[in-house]
Amino acid sequence: MLTKEDLLITKHAQDKMNIEGISVTQIIEALERGSKFEQTEGLLSVYRYFSVAYRRIDTKYIIKTVFVNR
């Protein structure tokens, strides 16, 4: 099970979290349960009404951005 300590959230992702109203708990849930799609530099996890773009390095997840699916 992932924890907040497993995440490295970029400034851009933090800003988007505030704008879109997405919490750290929701990000963890998306990483654990969402559908995963490969991207050029990482993965995209789509879960419920939002998506999380991230890269995984060892045991850390670098959260690049989050957004509401429209």
The stretches of 5 or more residues where confidence is low (pLDDT under 50) are: none
List SSEs in N-to-C order: EHHEEEE
Total number of distinct structural domains: 1
As a percent range, the share of helical residues equals: 25-40%
The shape is globular
Largest sheet: 5 strands, mixed
The average pLDDT score comes to 97
CATH superfamily: RelE-like
The radius of gyration computed from the alpha-carbon positions, rounded to a whole number of angstroms, is 11 Å
Q: How many strand segments?
A: 5
Order of strands in the sheet with the most strands? 1-5-4-3-2
Q: The CATH topology is what?
A: YaeB-like fold
Classification by helices and strands: alpha+beta
**Name given to the CATH architecture:** 2-Layer Sandwich
> What's the CATH class, please?
Alpha Beta
Number of helices: 2
Report strand %: 35-45%
Distance, first to last CA: 29 Å
What key phrases describe this protein's structure?
YaeB-like fold; globular; 5 strands; 29% helix; five-stranded mixed β-sheet; 70 residues; alpha+beta
